[in-house]
Design a protein that fits this description.
Layout (H helix, E strand, L loop, with lengths): L4 E7 L28 E6 L7 H4 L2 E3 L19 E6 L2 E5 L4 E3 L7 E4 L30 E8 L3 E6 L6 H8 L17 E5 L2 E5 L14 H8 L2 E9 L5 H15 L7 E7 L6 H11 L5 E4 L5 H12 L1
C-alpha cells in the first residue's frame, strides 16, 4: 500500500559531555570537549513508497556526540541521519512551517544536533587553575513533522486501464511497475526518471472516476501538479475517440482546469494492428486536434521518437 500521510518525530543527536580530567595528581585541567550531536537531514527520491517505512519507525534520531577525553581530546561528532522521502513530500511542522521536497540530490536540514559540552580545560583561568566543572552538552533539536505526499511530475501518463501506461513507463524509464493484461494491475501510481524529468503512471481512471468509481479519484488530485499529460489510447480499441472522450469527461468533471493542461495522445500497442487500421484510428483521433504519436513497446524507433519529443 502507498503511504502518503504519516507523522514522525525527528531528533538531532545530543552533544557529548565535556570531560573533567587533570594532568597527573596535581597538574592542570586537561578535559576535552564533547563531540557535536549529529544532524537529521532529508533527501528526495523517486521511490514513491519511501514513506512506508516511517509507519514502523516514527521516531528518528541522529547519533549523539561522544564524551570529551583527557589530554584535551575532543569527543567524536555524532553521525548525521539522512531520511529518504519521495519527491513531492511536504513536511509540515507544528508551527505550520512547510518544507516541500521538490529537488533530487539536495539535502535539507531538519533538526540540528546539540553542541558538545566544554571540558574543564576550557574553564582554566588565572583565578581558577583547577576547575572541576565541565558542561553536559546540549540536546539536539526535536521536531514533530506531518508528512504529506503530493505527487509531482513533469509528465503524467493517463488513459483507460490496459492502455499500456505501466509498460511504457517501464520501457522508457528506470521504473519497474507491475504490468498485466487485465485492468487495475497497477493500484498505485509509479514514478520513473527520463533524462532528469519525472514521469508518473497515474492508474485507474475509468468512467465515473471523478465521482469516486474505480481508483482514479484518489489520483486525480495528483494530475493537477503535472506539466504535460500523455493520454494513452490502445490501438486495439474499437473506438479510440470514445476512449479519449471518456477520460476527458472525467478530467472535466473533476476540475475544468485539467482540460487546459497541455496534452498529447499516444496511440499505443501499434504493433498489434494492421497499418491500414492504424491509419484509420489516427484519422478518427485527429478530431481531438491534439498531437498524436503512435508507439509500441516492441518498436524501439517509436520509443526513440517519443523520448526525443519529451526531451524538447
Ligand atoms: N503488443 C503490445 N502489448 C502491449 C504494449 N504495451 C502494453 N502491452 C500489454 O498490454 C497489457 C496492459 O499493459 P499495462 O502496461 O499493464 O497497462 P496499464 O493498465 O495502462 O498500465 C499488458 O499485457 C502489456 O503487456 C505494446 O506496445 N504492444
Ligand atoms: Mg498499469
Amino acid at each position: 500500500m502507498l503511504i502518503d500521510e504519516v507523522d514522525i518525530i525527528v531528533k538531532g543527536g545530543h552533544g557529548g559531555p565535556g570531560c573533567v580530567s587533570f594532568i597527573g595528581k596535581h597538574g592542570g585541567p586537561d578535559g576535552g570537549d564533547g563531540g557535536k550531536g549529529g544532524d537529521v537531514l532529508v533527501e528526495a527520491t523517486t521511490d514513491l513508497y519511501a514513506l512506508n517505512r516511517f509507519l514502523a519507525k516514527s521516531t528518528l534520531s541522529a547519533d549523539n556526540g561522544t564524551a570529551g577525553k583527557s589530554n584535551q581530546r575532543s569527543g567524536e561528532n555524532g553521525k548525521d541521519l539522512t531520511l529518504i522521502m519521495p519527491i513531492g513530500t511536504f513536511l509540515i511542522e507544528e508551527s505550520g512551517a512547510e518544507i516541500e521536497l521538490n529537488e533530487l540530490n539536495k539535502k535539507i536540514l531538519l533538526a540540528k544536533g546539540g553542541l558538545g559540552g566544554r571540558g574543564n580545560a576550557f574553564f582554566k583561568s588565572s583565578r581558577n587553575t583547577t576547575p572541576k566543572r565541565a558542561q553536559p552538552g546540549l540536546s539536539g533539536e526535536e521536531k514533530k513533522l506531518s508528512l504529506k505526499l503530493k505527487l509531482i511530475a513533469d509528465f503524467g501518463l493517463i488513459g483507460l486501464p490496459n492502455a499500456g501506461k505501466s509498460s511504457l513507463l517501464n520501457e522508457i524509464t528506470n521504473a519497474e511497475a507491475k504490468v498485466g493484461s487485465y485492468p487495475f494491475t497497477t493500484l498505485e501510481p509509479n514514478l520513473g526518471m527520463l533524462n532528469g524529468k519525472i514521469l508518473a503512471d497515474i492508474p485507474g481512471l475509468i468512467e465515473g472516476a471523478s465521482e469516486g468509481r474505480g481508483l482514479g479519484h484518489r489520483f486525480l488530485k495528483h494530475i493537477e501538479k503535472v506539466n504535460l499529460l500523455l493520454h494513452l489510447i490502445s490501438a486495439e480499441s474499437i473506438d479510440p475517440l470514445n476512449d479519449y472522450q471518456v477520460i476527458q469527461k472525467e478530467l472535466k468533471a473533476y476540475n475544468l482546469k485539467l482540460l487546459e493542461k497541455e496534452e498529447i495522445i499516444l496511440l499505443t500497442k501499434s504493433d498489434l494492428v494492421e497499418a491500414k487500421d492504424l491509419e484509420k484510428k489516427l484519422k478518427s483521433l485527429a478530431k481531438t486536434k491534439k498531437k498524436i504519436i503512435p508507439v509500441s513497446i516492441h518498436n524501439w524507433e517509436s520509443l526513440q521518437f517519443l523520448i526525443k519529443f519529451l526531451n524538447q
